[in-house]
Specification:
Pfam families: YwiC
Order of helices and strands: HHHHHHHHHH
Number of strands: 0
Mean pLDDT: 88
Oligomer: single chain
Structural class: mainly alpha
Number of domains: 2
Helix content: over 70%
Number of helices: 10
């Protein structure tokens, strides 16, 4: 049975927030600058299918040669489905999305190289996948509008991307590097920096004051959780709550 399902369902259940929240946040930001359309829906579908294909590809690359064929069906189906969905998206939106293709090609190729080197769980790989996911917020924006910078949205993109990068550091400090004190210190210093960036964005008027409580919660959890008893399920629930909170803040503006 395991051989029949190999590669079809990603096992990184904690990654769902990182996959979905940036896309949904990008839609919320984009709706204030342009009408949303069916191309936005197919873009989300393309991203989801593309992630499934990427997951199957990483399993293929790191598997022993004699076992790689077990992941081939999932890889082929997801890759073809993502390609078809991508073509439909381009037909609906026009070629403007192709401007982002080189950046995503670099990110995906780099991440696949790390997978082939059996470093798919490294900090570098985690950051690459976060940047790719959070990049959807920028892809959805109409940068050719009269106000291409739209500092409020840029500030939210930066803070949300910083949050998901910080989640990689935080989870490593709690699980894979739980016996390395330097890992917890690294996560704590990083989250303190994210809090300072958020304070600066609020001070500049780009973000509302309510972002401060969320940033303080991020910093507090990075200091408290390494010292407290925790289980993977508790870590996952905490990240889901913080991600939902972040999405709510985007809705508030």
């Amino acid at each position: 049975m395991a051989g029949l399902t190999a590669g079809w369902v990603p096992k990184q259940h904690g990654a769902w927030a990182m996959i979905l929240v940036p896309y949904l946040a990008g839609l919320v930001m984009a709706r204030d600058a342009r009408p949303l359309g069916p191309g936005d829906l197919t873009l989300g579908l393309t991203w989801l299918l593309g992630y499934f294909a990427y997951n199957a590809a990483t399993l293929t690359l790191k598997a022993p040669a004699q076992r790689r064929t077990r992941y081939t069906p999932a890889l082929v189906v997801y890759a073809v489905a993502a390609g078809v969905s991508g073509l439909v998206t381009l037909a609906l939106t026009g070629p403007v999305l192709l401007w982002w293709a080189p950046a995503y090609a670099v990110l995906v190729t780099w991440a696949l190289y790390l997978a082939a080197s059996r470093r798919e769980r490294s900090l570098q790989s985690g950051v690459l996948t976060v940047v790719a996911s959070c990049g959807l917020m920028a892809v959805l924006q109409p940068w050719g509008a009269d106000d291409p910078t739209r500092w409020r949205d840029v500030a939210m993109m930066v803070v949300l991307t910083a949050y998901f990068v910080g989640t990689v550091l935080h989870v490593k400090a709690l699980i894979r590097e739980r016996n390395e004190p330097a890992s917890a210190v690294r996560s704590q210093a990083y989250h303190a920096g994210v809090a300072l960036v958020t304070v600066a964005a609020v001070g500049a008027g780009w973000l509302g004051w309510w972002w401060l409580t969320w940033a303080a919660a991020l910093a507090a959890r990075s200091f408290w959780m390494p010292r407290a008893p925790r289980r993977p399920a508790q870590i996952g629930v905490m990240e889901i709550l913080l991600s939902a909170w972040a999405l709510t803040l985007v809705l508030l503006g």
